[in-house]
Design goal:
five-stranded parallel sheet; two-stranded antiparallel ribbon; oxidoreductase; NAD(P)H dehydrogenase (quinone) activity
């Protein structure tokens, strides 16, 4: 299995960095693994287009080619990111805007409402961390990575999300709570198939 991890956090000495480390340590040794670290790559999230740089031609952009190739290579994607202001970080939103584009991730079809899902056959896992208490995240704010799951990956691109793991109230969490969560991540990583 070919696994692509899309890591979105400014540094590695953090809960998100620990999640990445635990996953890398516990994935099957027979798997091929690549990591995209958006902050380390200094990924430019600004989606810019004009008459010379057309939006419908983003699938040809050289600056993002290595990311499209990594996604094409993969069987399973793992997204690791925090929730900031009730959503994914801007750098990840920009990554999605610039990489999961028409003619690469999806293609509109004449006389059909839904696009052809060009990344069908792949699976994904989403792991999010946030400071919000779980009940507010679930019943009031409701997104917390689920827009990425439903609307982008599944509905537009055909990537089936097999795992959605959330760790809430991170700022007030104890070392024991974090340890229990990281054990859950370890078990998750060992069971990816």
């Amino acid at each position: 299995m070919k696994i692509l991890i899309i890591y979105t956090y400014p540094h590695h000495d953090s809960l998100n960095g620990s999640i990445l480390s635990v996953i890398l340590k516990n994935l099957n040794n027979n798997y091929d693994i690549k990591v995209i670290d958006l902050y380390k790559d200094k990924f430019n999230p600004v989606l810019y287009f004009d008459k010379q740089n057309k939006r419908r031609e983003l699938f040809l952009a050289n600056e993002t080619k290595k990311y499209r190739e990594a996604i094409s290579w993969s069987d399973h994607l793992i997204f690791i990111f925090p929730i900031w202001w009730s959503s994914m970080p801007a750098i990840l939103k920009g990554f999605i805007d610039k990489i999961f584009v028409q003619q690469f991730a999806y293609a509109y079809q004449k006389n059909k409402i839904m696009p052809n899902k060009l990344l069908r056959g792949r699976t994904a896992s989403i792991i999010v961390t946030h400071d919000t208490p779980w009940f507010l995240a679930k019943y009031i704010q409701k997104d917390y990575g689920k827009v990425l799951k439903r609307q982008i990956l599944e509905n537009m691109c055909g990537i089936k999300v097999t795992h959605f793991i959330s760790f809430s109230n991170t700022r007030k969490s104890s070392l024991k709570q974090r340890s229990v969560f990281l054990n859950k991540i370890s078990l998750f990583a060992r069971n990816i198939k």
